Amino acid sequence: MSEITPPLILIADDDKITRMVLRQAMEQEGYQVVEAIDGESCLAIFSRLRPDVVLLDAIMPIMDGFACCARIQQLQGATQTPVLMITGLEDQDSVDQAFTAGAVDYITKPIHWAVLRQRVRRLIQQVRLYRQLEEANSKLQRLATVDGLTQIANRRRFDEYLEHEWQRMMRERLPLSLILGDIDCFKLYNDTYGHQAGDDCLRKVAQVMQMAAKRAIDLSARYGGEEFAVILPHTEQSGAIQVADDIRVGVKGLEIAHASSKVAQAVTISLGVATTIPSQASSPEMLIMAADQALYQAKAAGRDRYCT
Ligand code: GH3
Ligand code: MG
Ligand code: MG
Ligand code: MG
């Protein structure tokens, strides 16, 4: 049998007896329970424990259920923990207020226990399903944008981000820089040390790329087989050169032995740097071509260097 943690129910009510009977009913269902005695402690517990369902009283001291419910919606973002209001208030205004605050259900006191049990069961099913979908979605998202071997961004993500930042830099009339890097004599490396060692080498070089692209807006990606790219928004040529040389030095600093290299006794990388202020007259493809030409020059000039 698979081990599943029981759902966690947060019960917020200022009345001790109500909390107790609610707890008993929920524990009978096999749920775990935590209690809060007012709206403020309900919020605190909510952010700490992220329960699966909240059973919330309306009238409580310090912060009432309506305000508490609204704050929970702000707190949770996309986690979608359902809030069920349980209250003695039956007037239309209170019902409207509860749903406006984000409650997904409304039950009046005295509690109809059979109904409450079924509603909570339904809410738990829904929240579990929702979270499974969210998880599956983020896995898919990751598969679509992350390179399986190196765990950095893949070509698809690179293309998307370059297009995105191209548009953004065009609007803001700011420079956009691109670095293309290609490992030197990598075919010889594979031939000498084997494909497995080649894969290890790619992973390590990817880490250097990742470290060199320091800012949150920089993106390093695996561009192709043993080719890498770094997108540097809002970056002049001088800044991009700095990053390119950090990568060159970083790769050499890995000191991965490469006895058959024509360049050094270790794995090295050549880089091409291109910078432009995006405009309607040019395109991301032209920036890639410029970086590729610079990379070709770096190869022709002896490798283990950058060109612009
Ligand atoms: P240069 O210095 O001119 O770049 O020479 P090079 O040998 O690096 O260039 P070439 O393009 O001839 O060879 C690239 C090699 O990269 C050939 C290919 O087998 C290898 N390669 C591409 N993708 C992978 C991969 O995922 N894993 C491994 N181990 N090798 C790969
Ligand atoms: Mg109350
Ligand atoms: Mg290549
Ligand atoms: Mg190469």
TrEMBL record:
One of its GO terms (molecular function) is diguanylate cyclase activity. One of its GO terms (cellular component) is plasma membrane. It comes from the Bacteria. The modification 4-aspartylphosphate is found at residue 57. Keywords: Phosphoprotein. InterPro entries: CheY-like_superfamily, Diguanylate_Cyclase, GGDEF_dom, Nucleotide_cyclase, Rev_trsase/Diguanyl_cyclase, Sig_transdc_resp-reg_receiver. Residues 174-308 form the GGDEF domain. One of its GO terms (biological process) is phosphorelay signal transduction system. Signal peptide: none annotated. Residues 8-124 form the Response regulatory domain. SUPFAM superfamilies: CheY-like, Nucleotide cyclase. NCBIfam families: GGDEF (TIGR00254). This is Diguanylate cyclase response regulator. The lineage of its organism: Bacteria, Bacillati, Cyanobacteriota, Cyanophyceae, Leptolyngbyales.
